[in-house]
Amino acid sequence: MAGPLPLGDPAPSDGRLPVDLPLDGSTPFSAYLHIPFCRVRCGYCDFNTYTSSELRGAKQEDYAETLASEIALARDVLSDAGALRPMDTVFFGGGTPTLLPAGDLARMLERAIDAFGIVDGAEITVEANPDTVTPAVARTLADAGVTRLSVGMQSAVPHVLAALDRTHHPDNVRTAVDAAKDAGLAVSVDLIYGAPGESLTDWEASLDAALALDSDHVSAYALIIEDGTKLARQIRRGEVPTPDDDLQAEMYELADGRLAAAGFDWYELSNWARSDEQRSRHNLAYWRGSDWWGFGPGAHSHVAGLRWWNVKHPAAYAQRLAASESPAAGTERPDAKAHLLERVLLESRLAEGLAIADIPEQNRDRVAGLIADGLIDGATALRGRVRLTLRGRLLADAVVRELTD
């Protein structure tokens, strides 16, 4: 299970939005549907997920109807506020969404579309464990309107998968990808690098295997050690080594070079796509500060600068909704300074960059120094935008500190 929820103000029991919220009906709207179930908890994961022994009062077979209750509440809330809009993107994340029957996912999607509507050509993504994707599952998802499958490959090397507590067989990645393609779905594969005991040669083997899948999109994330996870405890006890920052930097450079050579362009620090059309539009909605409603236990939402998050445990989530109450546990409205910091943090990660005009005025003269240090592209800066170089991507946090401190 994840760590504690953030601190914030109490959320209204009816879920209503503040009357002074500056709603904009032209802002794109997305839906995130959290499926909090996993067969096994991976040692590095701090997401809000639960194995069967941890559910205590919640049943997976009831989950689709429970989440549909929050969809109905959201429709009423947004309609009353004059902020009801069709969805541009939908994302089923987890956990392991495909641990539920594909028909349950299809039913939740149908309820969301009935409640909000959906734009033509919307992107609808389902995350999947390779062991849980069959041709029948892929066809059911495609028939329901899903357009994209995000396959949790993580690595092609057995000892690396074992270090991450991933239980799928590497061969099942190809099976899942082929099933998705045969059903007409676009495919993304997710990789993690820097696991304990993973060498540069191991990582190269995983990249080769991922490229051989001929997917449309690749995400590659550096392993981060989160407090409270099994892996953090193992490192603290000296059972496994701490990830090597220099090795992770080499792995990132290798990934960027290999993916570029294979026709992928980076569009966000950890994401590469074969074309603009294959970029994750849902994740771009987060990075660009659009509106979204997060459904499910522990899910976070954002509408017009207001943020809120749901209670964590599936049983508490279900109890709130059964009592016709909002499952929201807390809420916050970041001030202008916090909003600006977040905008710089998120937009600077994108290949399109950040407008220099959006940097605090007193810090804009620092751009020249960052260009001199090889962290920001000079030609792009002359056109009024901050765009990270490859070296800048490796030191992105330092660039953000320089632009905001």
Per CATH, the class of the largest domain reads Alpha Beta
Global Rg: 21 Å
Helical content stands at 25-40%
Kindly state the number of beta strands: 14
* Oligomeric form: single chain
Number of helices: 15
The residue ranges in which pLDDT falls below 50 over 5 or more consecutive positions are: none
Biggest sheet, spatial arrangement of strands: 7-8-6-5-4-3-2-1-9
User: Which structural class best describes the helix and strand composition?
Assistant: alpha/beta
Notable characteristics:
405 residues; alpha/beta; 9-stranded mixed sheet; 15 helices; globular; iron-sulfur; metal-binding; heme; rSAM; chaperone
Description:
Residues 23-265 form the Radical SAM core domain. It is found in: Cytoplasm. This is Heme chaperone HemW. Probably acts as a heme chaperone, transferring heme to an unknown acceptor. Binds one molecule of heme per monomer, possibly covalently. Binds 1 [4Fe-4S] cluster. The cluster is coordinated with 3 cysteines and an exchangeable S-adenosyl-L-methionine. There is one protein chain. This protein is of the alpha/beta class. The protein folds into two domains: 29-287, Aldolase class I (TIM Barrel); 336-405, no CATH class. The protein contains 15 helices and 14 strands. α3 (135-144) runs parallel beside α5 (171-182). It starts with 28 loop residues before the first strand and ends with a helix.
Topology of this protein?
Layout: E1 29-35, H1 63-80, E2 87-94, H2 102-116, E3 118-128, H3 135-144, E4 148-154, H4 158-163, H5 171-182, E5 186-193, H6 200-212, E6 217-222, H7 230-236, H8 245-261, E7 265-268, E8 271-273, H9 281-287, E9 291-295, E10 300-303, E11 306-310, H10 314-322, E12 328-332, H11 336-347, E13 354-355, H12 366-372, H13 378-382, E14 385-386, H14 390-394, H15 396-404
Parallel strand pairs: 1-2, 1-9, 2-3, 3-4, 4-5, 5-6
Antiparallel strand pairs: 6-8, 7-8, 10-11, 11-12, 13-14
Helix pairs in contact: 1-2, 1-10, 2-3, 3-5, 6-8
